[in-house]
Specification:
Leucine-rich Repeat Variant; mainly alpha; single chain
């Protein structure tokens, strides 16, 4: 059986269940695939090997094998070579997004990642700037978001120096009907970066608050992804809008009305009390910064003047519990 047939078979079988993946891991299939990636000369075969690795690395044990055998270095080597065909680099980004995925159990760090974070952010930013493929844009956004959660301080420093988020926002602006999944990953990335005080000025300068408010206008694309997008966007906004420039951006694009709706209309926020708290906090920061004239008298009386807890109880999805 030739290598192409073998690798394709491994990928197909691994897709069936995590139990099968664990059997492969036990028999050192992950390091074998990594070795073949380094040895093979054909890009098409390397694409198949990278895809097999992406399929395999859905469990903690598989990811641990991947990091043990210098998988991050392999990805970095592929991305840094401009001569590599775009499909090959795309498969490498897919693998990076997979092994850094937050939904994999106990996947909080990768051995060797800090050493390569700077290069990875640089190459991902370059790739997303040059690609015309929406799928590649999504993969880059997901990989950057995952990196910003896994190696926060290092990654954020390089995200700012490489203008990665600015380039993502430009890419979204220049495309018509950008996938909501891209918006979700970018919102998640901005939320991660906004957790660092020193990074917020940069986000405000590139008008991230205004972009997030635009993201919140997305409708009828699927409840689950809309929920995730809304929650990530609101986390970031609640952190950013204490700043006068951020608050002003939101006011200028009519964002106050949207935040009021999120507070008052449960169905508008998918009955999420977390979004309610973030929206209330954001409104209060905006009014404190820009003045009460940015909000109606009634909204001020009901959403701003009372204690935060009282406003929360009045509009919470759980308010019946407190009666």
């Amino acid at each position: 059986m030739d290598l192409k047939t073998t690798v394709t078979a491994i990928t197909i079988v691994a897709l069936r269940s995590e139990q099968i993946v664990e059997i492969f891991v036990k028999h050192d299939v992950v390091p074998m695939l990594l070795i073949q990636c380094e040895k093979c000369e054909g890009s098409s075969i390397r694409c198949l090997l990278l895809r097999a690795l992406s399929t395999m690395c859905c469990t903690t044990s598989a990811v641990r094998h991947f990091e043990k055998y210098s998988g991050i270095q392999l990805i970095t080597d592929i991305l840094e070579e401009d001569s590599r065909p775009e499909p090959e680099r795309s498969e490498a980004v897919t693998l990076l997004a997979q092994v850094t995925a937050p939904w994999i159990e106990d996947n909080y760090s990768l051995r060797g990642l800090p050493e390569y974070t700077k290069s990875l952010v640089k190459f991902l930013t370059k790739f997303l700037k040059n690609t015309r493929c929406c799928q590649n844009l999504l993969l880059c956004a997901a990989a950057l978001s995952n990196l910003s959660a896994m190696d926060t301080h290092n990654c954020i420093k390089y995200l700012i120096s490489q203008k990665s988020i600015e380039e993502l926002l430009k890419a979204i602006e220049h495309r018509r009907n950008t996938s909501v999944y891209v918006l979700e990953q970018v919102a998640s990335l901005i939320a991660n970066v906004s957790s660092i005080d020193s990074a917020r000025k940069h986000l405000i300068e590139i008008r991230a608050p205004a972009a997030l408010m635009c993201f919140l206008q997305v409708k009828n694309v699927g409840e689950n992804v809309e929920k995730r997008l809304q929650q990530k966007a609101m986390i970031a906004l609640s952190r950013l809008c204490s700043d006068h420039k951020a608050a002003k951006q939101i006011v200028e694009i009519g964002g106050v009305d949207k935040l009021v709706k999120l507070c008052r209309e449960k169905e508008n926020r998918f009955n999420s009390d977390a979004v309610l708290v973030a929206a209330l906090a954001s409104l209060r920061k905006i009014v404190e910064t820009c003045g009460k004239e940015v909000i109606s008298y009634q909204d001020s009386q009901e959403l701003i003047e009372p204690r935060l807890l009282d406003s929360f109880l009045a509009y919470s999805n759980q308010n019946e519990s407190y009666v």
